[in-house]
Predict the structure.
Amino acid sequence: MRHGGGGATTHLICGFLSCEVPDNPLVQTLPAALKLRVGNSPGGVWIEQAFRLAAEESASQRQGAGTVLNKLAELLFIEAVRRYLAELPSGHQGWLAGLRDPQEGKALALLHKHPGEHWTTEALARTVGLSRSAFAEHFRTLIGQPPMRYLAHWRLQLAAVQLREGRSLAQIAYDIGYGSEAALNRAFRQHYGQPPGIWRREHATA
């Protein structure tokens, strides 16, 4: 199919970024499309250069071109998310709004960095300098669920990733903070609708 009125040829470069974590909270909270404007916007020069370099690498297929394109895609995605986050209205709710909040953002960072810790709502509240009730209410308002439910969901997402990597259920249970292999087995079955072993086989094949 031919379009346009005979002007300069336009080349489209397509690609994709994959995410190993199922139901990733960042991916779920983003809009269907993110736009990076160049023009006179802050950082516009390096963004334009990055796209030009991506086009050159894609066309040249030189040694290491795939690695360069992967890194450029990650950088451009990060910049797009940063700009989207900066433009969120003050009353916005959701995971990114929580990430931007000083107290809740710190709590999210702790839960993601140390999922195996024996966290409680009280412990998180003390860490971020809020009372238990204020922290729990603020977290629920921004994120849409209580802190411990969010942590449980995040742990199960990590379990799914590690199952695909071939780690044993006992190792995973220890790393992500479950008291036993049996406890993780029950929680995984309830969340994903099938036992970890079956889930691993199906997704490893896929």
